[in-house]
Amino acid sequence: MQGVLWRRQDNARPADPAPQSRHRPSKVRVLELGELQVSALSFPHLESARTAKWIRQSDPEVYMINYILCGEGVFSHAGSDTTLHAGDLIMLDGSRPFDAHRHAFQSSWSQLTLQFPRRLLPLPEKTVQRLLAVPIDGRRGMGGAFTRWLTDLNARAGEFTPADISTLTSVTLNLLASVIARRLAADDALTPEARRTALRAKINAFVEQHLADPVMSPRTIADAHHISLRYLQQLLAEDDTSPAAWIRHRRLERCRLDLADPRLNARSVQAIAERWGFTNPAHFSRLFRATYGMPPRDYRNLAYAVSNPPRSRVSSRPPMSRVLCTSAAIPTATPSPQRSGGSAPRGGDTAGGTTASSGC
Question: How far separated are the first and last CA of the chain, in Å rounded?
């Protein structure tokens, strides 16, 4: 099974089992999508914590979205407790302390966790902060569409290859951004601040949907949302950017993802630039180099070299599809310091603190 992106760990034993308790196996399966990870966890009991001390030692600056498949849980964040039930979503910031206690039933999977660097979400951090540790309904509407997508990603984990990473990542993040925007819009009548936050999320969603349109401009964005250009500029200035700069940033990021997509190798750099609204090749090349430190063609070559390293005649490395069987506590993310989430096994990975116990 060459090119498969998932890995699995079965029969993880509890880190600190209670005496005279009966333990059921725990397992985790991680779908690697570049910088984005989707982890499926199965457990009867899970305790996880992210303390200020661990954050000072290692802060990968990631968001974690947990989808509760069965059972219930309590998440403590910023001095308040949130109770979740099956079908709920909750978003956490790996740079902020939290504590979680989860109980699940005997089932195939107990929880799905999506983890990715904060910079990948096409929404400003101020917008997202309002929804941290807030229950989001994953049973209907955009929340339901998002949870069905996550569930399908997990169910089809063995079918994906590295060529699918760019598309899967883009769809996942765009769906999540839409869920956040819709959730904030539901609170629209609460306060002027809530209305501004919801409007900012809608503007971001609009920009994402129209990046390929070369005529999109700050004026068209303002007109589409029935606000003045001055108000639009003030709104984005709160995030230290401008409408034109935000459009340019998102277009460049889309081009970067396409240049790294091996399925688009036959498409020219100019065609990719035009696909995302850049009509002047020289201008695009200058912008790309100023942003990413190299010309777009060099970036494409580097991305290809990284994803296709030279093979030696004799290799002892296992294929990408591999089974990892250990007796350590179940981790919530790959123990890589570059992508590791805020929670990791107590007494195991030094980056965080999560303990999976196989006894309730």
Answer: 36
